[in-house]
Amino acid sequence: xxxxGKLIVISGPSGxxxxxxxxxAIQGRTDMCFSTSVTTRSPxxxxxxxxxxxxxxxxxxxxMVERGELLEHASYVAHSYGTPRAFVEKQMxxxxxxxxxxxxxxxxxxxxxxxxxxxxxxxxxxxxxxRRRLESRGTDxxxxxxxxxxxxxxxxxxxxxxxxxxxNDKIDDAAADFAxxxxxxxxxxxxxxxxLETF
Length: 199
Known about the structure:
Blueprint: E1 7-11, H1 18-26, E2 32-34, E3 37-39, E4 53-55, H2 58-66, E5 70-76, E6 79-84, H3 85-93, E7 97-101, H4 104-113, E8 118-123, H5 127-137, H6 142-157, E9 164-167, H7 171-186, H8 189-192
Parallel strand pairs: 1-7, 1-8, 2-7, 3-4, 8-9
Antiparallel strand pairs: 3-6, 5-6
């Protein structure tokens, strides 16, 4: 029987390199998957229901909220998004470590509903480096970059709810830290105490 998976919540400022770190860390692993969110927005060309998102209407979304079926939820630009608890728990029961890339407010909701979730905050090495990364993207105006830096400072103030901090200075080191955290979490007594019953 496969060992039960973990829910891994990843957060960090825009430009910290969260996706790069995670994708490097899980390369070649077959025990990892990303959570699939529900959303009330319409599918974009090429998006597949159940793979990219679970596309539902606002009434169904509200019912899920009221029944406590979402680990976290939020609204952006007139559309609602959330993480379905049943999907996450099914993947974990099947032995997958489920990765959830969300902002601090969402992470706080997940921690309340699933205290065993592992929360990891990914930091850039400095605010100066974060600015450099945002500017080097070439996709945002100066005003947007300043807003992102301001938001990053706000997020840092709320980071005390996290279990771990990874500093993404060198990508390979940060990815190794992520893998080490996952390994340690799977070796926790609470996670493996059932093994004692086999002796």
